[in-house]
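Recap from last week: sequence in, structure out.
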Amino acid sequence: MKTLASLCLLLLLGGCAATATPPTHYYTLNDADHAGPRLLAEQTLAVIGIAPVGVADYIDNEGLALLTASHQLHLARQHRWAEPPSQAIGRALQIDLGEQLPVFRIDNSRDGTLDGWDYRLRLRVDQFHGTANGEAVLAGNWRLEDPTDNRVLSSQRFRLSQPLTERGYPALVIQLRALLRQLAGQLAAEISQQAR
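Predicted structure tokens:
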């Protein structure tokens, strides 16, 4: 009887060990090093500083988020961000604004640069996820400020969405990145207007 119980336990444990764990995939918002050319001080029209990006708690999580039903989020276990999304969003915005505003120097407070800013950009992201309907969503608000007196020069709420071109988390990350580029385009237009 003891031998039969031991054999059953061994088979049960062996079956558990044979169950394969799905691989974990890590995602970043930047596919390559996009460092633009460094501007000399006399070439710089103005310096834009990006303050630390604020995000909703569910966003600054390891797992990519999917809105599965009204008010229900699923955080993926095997599809994760390679770095905190708040940092990745700030870095992506810095790259995109640098490309769209070539005569501006774009600083990121995460790099430790806080001096000499002509404008400060504050971004709050409230939604950064996929949906069960196959869309990527980016929503929140931004403020452009004068850092010398904290005066708000311009502010706006935004909600951007885009359908996924195919199913899956890799396609979601690609579309979330595209939405950040779209937001950077809107911000670049506003910054250019303010700098006139």
